[in-house]
Every structure is written in C-alpha cells, then in structure tokens.
Design a protein that fits this description.
about 200 residues, alpha+beta, 60s Ribosomal Protein L30, Chain: A, 2 domains, six-stranded mixed β-sheet, two-stranded antiparallel ribbon, 8 helices, about 35% helix, about 20% strand, globular
Length: about 200
C-alpha cells in the first residue's frame, strides 16, 4: 500500500486518524472489486455510506471520498445514517455494486494507542504529535486486508435514469444572492431563496 496515498488523504481530511485510513482502504478495495477507477464525474459511481451523525468515526467518510472520488459536491455520495463504518459502491453504468465494511480485527490496538488515549481526554487530533498519530493510523494501513475489511460479493444493482445537472443560478428577489432555480420559491410576485421565502424547504 502506497503511503503517499495515505498522506494525501490525510491532507484532504485535515488530520491523521485511523478512521480516514480505514475509509481509504475500504474505498480502494471497493474500486478494485468492481474493476473501476476513481471517478471524476457524477455519472459513473455512486456511494452509500452507512455512517451516522456525531460519532467519532465519521472521518471514515473523508477517506472514502478521497479514494473513490464520490463527493458531496458531485452529489454522488449519501449517508444512510446507521452509525456503521461501511459503504456500498455502485457502478452505475454496469449496474453492479459491492459492500465493504470495517472489520474490528485490529481495533483493540487502535483503542489502546497513545493517540486514542489523548483523544479520550478531549485533546483535538491536530494537537497530538504526528508520530503518535501515524503510529495509530498504520495499524489499519499496514494490516492484512482480511483483518480490517469485510468485502462482500459484487452483486447486480439496478440504476435508473439520473436527472442530470440542473443548470442556472438566479438572484433571490429579496437578498440578491444567487440560488439554483429549482430552489426558488414563489412569494406573491417574487422569487425568493428558501431562507427569505419563509418556507422550510
């Protein structure tokens, strides 16, 4: 496994951590199983992340985004909200998918690392020495794949037609800020963004 890939993923994420490393490994494994490359568009791959909200392992998502190219900005990634470290990567063109999940085979060593001890004391990850952080991250990165990942079989996954991108930004008649035309709301004779319109959505 190329350490440069891991280092670049950490730059993308903002700090060194085991969950990002696990996300990169899971994303790369999913690409390999499907026989596809990292995507640069929204029309090739779609990823369903099983992470939830407000748990410390959400860093997994950035590792997956970095590895697969499925990103929030491209609209080809979504969260299932189950609080699990797993993903399903869908090859939209060939209508097949694979699920990859984190396997806790090395997690005791991670939990007992100096890095995680300090995180448990409330110390931010960016305030922990890089050496300690990398010692913890390589527990996941250098492990045999079958000790840290469960890779399911590739299976058929039907994919319907995409709506495609909706182009066009229009100024809100109230605040003047640009808003995608599909998010404008009609208020009397005005076309407003959602916050100015008073609508919830």
């Amino acid at each position: 496994m190329d350490k440069q890939v891991l280092e670049e993923a950490f730059k993308f994420h903002g700090h060194i951590c085991w969950a990002s490393a696990a996300g990169v490994r899971a994303g790369l494994a999913a690409l390999r199983q499907l026989g596809v490359r990292r995507t640069g568009t929204s029309g090739e791959l779609h990823c369903v992340l099983e992470i939830g909200e407000n748990h410390g392992a959400q860093c997994f998502a950035d590792g997956v985004q970095y590895a697969t190219g499925c990103t929030l900005g491209k609209g080809n990634i979504e969260k299932a909200g189950w609080g699990k470290l797993a993903l399903t990567l869908i090859d939209k063109k060939n209508e097949k998918a694979v699920r990859v999940s984190y396997k806790p085979g090395r997690h005791k060593a991670i939990a007992e690392s100096a890095f995680m001890t300090k995180r448990g004391q409330g110390i931010p990850p960016t305030d922990i020495p890089e050496k300690e952080a990398m010692e913890m991250a390589v527990i996941v990165w250098d492990a045999p794949e079958d000790e840290v990942l469960i890779i399911g079989p590739v299976h058929p996954h039907a994919w319907g037609d995409d709506f495609g991108e909706i182009m066009g930004l229009i100024p809100c008649d109230n605040c003047g800020e640009l808003v995608s035309r599909v998010y404008l709301r009609v208020v009397g004779k005005s076309h407003m963004c959602i916050p100015c319109s008073g609508y919830e959505r």
